[in-house]
Amino acid sequence: MKKILIMIVFMSIVFTPLMAKDGELQTSYLYENTRLLQMDGYSFGMGGASVGVLGKSFNLNNHAKDAFLRGFDVSAGMNMLYYNDYFESYTAQSYFGSINFPLKDWFMVNITGINNYLLLPKRDVANQWDSLELTKNYSSTLFFTLARKVNLTPKTQLGLGFTGKYVDQTVLFDYRSDYVVLEDAPGKYTLGKGFGADVSMIARFQLGSSTYFNMGGSLIDVVAPLNVVMGKYFGAGLEINHVLFYKNAKLNLAGDYLINHSDSTRMSFGIEEWILNERLALRLGFVDTKITAMDNKKAFTYDPDGAINSVYNDYDSLNLGYNLYNPKEQITMGLGFKAGGFEANFSYALGSEYTGNSMSFDIAYTGEEVKKSTYKFEPKIELQSNYKYFSPNGDGKRDQVIFFMNPKNIEEIGKWKLEIYNSSADLVKGFKGKKSVPKQITWDGKDKNNKTLPDGEYYALTEIEDIYGNVGSSQKVKFKIMKKSPSVDLTFMPDKLHPGSEKFKFMVTQMESVEIIKTKIVIMKEDEKIDEITYDGFKDSFKWNGIYGDNNYPEKGEELTAYCELTDNAGNTGKSVLVNIPVGEKVVEEDKKEVKMPEIFIAARIRFATSSSKLPSSAKEELDEVVEMLNKKKQLKIRIEGHTDSRGAAQTNYKLSLDRANVVKEYLIDEGVPEDRMVVVGYGEDMPIDSNNTEKGRKNNRRVDVIVISD
């Protein structure tokens, strides 16, 4: 039902202008001037420029702005226009009232009523202006608007409005013997009534964190309530949120252009500054309106003697195209005030060449408590971090974590907070603010007492609340603090390096179960680095043939040193102790001159997780090298020895060691090694190669050794 209703409204907005028909200039004059005068106290102070300014609940010229409102509010006001020279007191009055409320989360609904009184001059038989006698005439309009906002991109929003209206305009004639005004007619004449429609849109673009550009337009009377020509209304505005006198402030710059029904145009420019936490507004505007001379066109069809039309024609010809209700080059100014849920606007226009001073006033109630009870839409906010692991230890690597916050489905932010909890759900750090949400917050890992937190698991959660009391929360973002550097052990096999041989390899043992993002082995000769092996991630074995630089290699009898570095995902780097590498005879061509193998040597060493006999994926590369060697040297056999650490029952450990050895055997069989070339034994915890009193030692002992034996 929701999608169908929204589709009907959008189709009406798109296709209604296609059905519009231009009418004749007959009953339009009174009606058109009421359109020019339909400005509230807010718009009046801006010279009428208001299409590009958001945030005001009352606006007749672009109802698409209602799409950006939220909750319930009511507005009421009036304006009075004064004219000198030919008129006494005011010549026009407008009274208006408006109500906004949401229709679920489908549309914003606006209902507005306005009654415009225009004071038409009487004339005597000699067609001269009388001594300021006035008659009252009015045009009443009821508007009903459905508006909806569409988010085109994260920084672009579009408001669309469809407005239906009913118009009724009437002229009242005062019968006195010294006036010639339709003497045989009754005292009240309906000059036209009917239903009409406007369509409007406004686009909002976010240019920066606190700057917005708005542009919009309206097609007025695309379905004409009277026989009038369609009007066009365009406007744009720039909104800049800033700080002034240590308080939140907002600057609006706006300009509008109205092409009214009977060829009249109005240009408006305005500037507005909200200060003192947007409590007080100062406005200044400029307006210039001109209408093409009416010649002998009739403004009122019910005027057979031409009494009223002649007045307008004569005045228009005297004033070079400017009629009674269209000021020429007029300056306006205004004040606005917000407090306690009320907003009041007062504006004053200085008299221009053809007009006197004018003023407008309105008041609106946008009480927060009322909005809180009517606007029930949960805001949303996304939270992300740049690291899942970070290390606030001052080494310059991942010492800080950055949180990114992205609020959604929220019109005006009341307050926000970002809180960080430990694994026990205790609050350890908090950030908070009002109004705008920062795009990112950087945290150095310190708690609310400015002490660096211990290693462990943490999570962050952000909460946002709009000005109506609706609260939304993000998902939890989990991360770890890891300040400790990873421990690493480096060994090698066989026990001597023969430069040029492909049999030498480094063995890397990681002591803690942390994710490693980089493995590096550095080889040195007399304290000078001669080679380096790096790998993105963790790898537990590396081949090295002893050749470095431009085909350089160490001489027999020399000794090299090497160490290994592991960098974890928190940016911590751990370094092993130096190992000494004896250098043997260089191998020139391995297929012609081979290094004589010892009768027994370890071809592979596979380490296992605690209580597990699952073959690690990292071991397959090492075992594939054993397969390659056995395929080349058919005379060789291997013994597969399984081992455990000392924890647990001896019988259980024996079975586990045998299971580990058999897993390696099955892999080699699958790779084509005959079963009769392998011997499998399990030693349990009986043959440790390291201490079982440390985690490092126990990890070394949980192993399978593949030992090559000569036939």
In words, what does this structure look like?
- InterPro entries: Bact_OuterMem_StrucFunc, OMP_bac, OmpA-like, OmpA-like_sf.
- This is OmpA family protein.
- Keywords: Cell outer membrane, Membrane.
- One of its GO terms (cellular component) is cell outer membrane.
- Pfam families: CHU_C, OmpA.
- By secondary structure, this protein is mostly beta strands.
- It has four domains: 373 residues, monomeric porin ompg (Porin), CATH 2.40.160; 102 residues, Immunoglobulin-like (Sandwich), CATH 2.60.40.2550; 110 residues, Immunoglobulin-like; 115 residues, OmpA-like domain (60s Ribosomal Protein L30, Chain: A, 2-Layer Sandwich).
- Helix content is 13%, strand content 46%.
- The protein contains eight helices and 35 strands.
- Strands 1-2-3-4-5-6-7-8-9-10-11-12-13-14 form a 14-stranded antiparallel β-barrel, surrounded by four helices. Strands 16, 18, 19, 21, 22 and 23 form a six-stranded mixed β-sheet that branches. Strands 26, 27, 29, 30 and 31 form a five-stranded antiparallel β-sheet that branches.
- It is rod-shaped, with a radius of gyration of 43 Å.
- The two termini are 84 Å apart.
- About 11% of the residues have low confidence.
